[in-house]
Amino acid sequence: MLLEHDDSQLLLVDYQVKLLPALHDGAWALGNARRLTRLARLFKVPVWLTEEYPEGLGATDPDLQALVAQAQQAGGGKTFPKMSFSAVADGLGELLRPPARAQNPQGGNARSLPKHLQKKPEAVPERGTVVIAGCETHVCLLQTALALLEEEFDVWVVTDACTSRTERNRDAAFDRLAGAGAELVTTEMVAFEWLRTAEHPAFAETLRIVKEVAA
């Protein structure tokens, strides 16, 4: 089973300026988050960014925030402030999975039309795979990812873009997430699975992003 870029959404959890300095390998994880965001922009993957209690923990790292804005312009997504540790508890799940919507070009009530003229409701294209990375892995990322699994999303955790205050907490979260059904991957796995072939027009740019030092 491999990632498909046209079925993926990227979710970045709480890369905030007052939080990152206290985290284990925080600079490395942030660097990989920036690479993921650039890849998402390249493949037009929607990017969702959460911020936990921004009044207290500060805004997102400004360089990452700028990259996210560019990626959202290319592929969609939104920045989502929250107070709950799980972003799903604050309503993010509804944004990740848009509802079906009926479209009736003739106007009026579609049910009043003869059966052969009625149009079926047209669903918004649904992306069922969430590629997730962030801080703190054992708290906000874990609780968000478990809730997404409960809502039947496929969840892929980018391990080298995740961090906690201690390595033990981060790794315990990885064990629990894998046991719950999440896939554990790295930034480069995501890049080459979205790419798939050296014949892809984004091959050269993907290689350039991959070869950059993460931090």
Task: Describe the model.
This is Isochorismatase family protein. The protein has 215 residues and is α/β, with parallel strands linked by helices. It has a single domain, classed as 3-Layer(aba) Sandwich (Rossmann fold), CATH 3.40.50. It contains 8 helices and 6 strands; from the N terminus they run βαβααβαβαβαβαα. Strand 5 (154-158), helix 6 and strand 6 form a beta-alpha-beta unit. Helix 1 packs parallel to helix 7 (187-195) and helix 1 (26-43) runs antiparallel to helix 8 (203-211). The longest helix is centred in the first third of the chain and has 18 residues, at 26-43.
Summarize the model shown.
By secondary structure, the protein is an alpha/beta fold.
Sheet with the most strands, sense and barrel status? 6 strands, parallel
Spans of 5+ residues with little confidence (pLDDT < 50)? 101-113
Strand content: 5-15%
* Total count of helical runs of at least 4 residues: 8
Mean pLDDT: 89
CATH superfamily (homologous) name: Isochorismatase-like
**Broad structural category:** alpha/beta
CATH topology: Rossmann fold
Total strands: the figure is: 6
What count of domains describes the coordinates?
1
Order of helices and strands: EHEHHEHEHEHEHH
CATH architecture: 3-Layer(aba) Sandwich
Strand order of the largest sheet: 3-2-1-4-5-6
> What sort of overall outline do the alpha carbons produce when their principal axes are compared?
globular
Could you tell me how far the N terminus lies from the C terminus, measured between alpha carbons in angstroms?
Answer: 29 Å
CATH class label: Alpha Beta
Organism: Hylemonella gracilis
Region (Disordered): 97-122
InterPro entries: Isochorismatase-like_dom, Isochorismatase-like_sf, Isochorismatase_domain
Domain Isochorismatase-like: 127-188
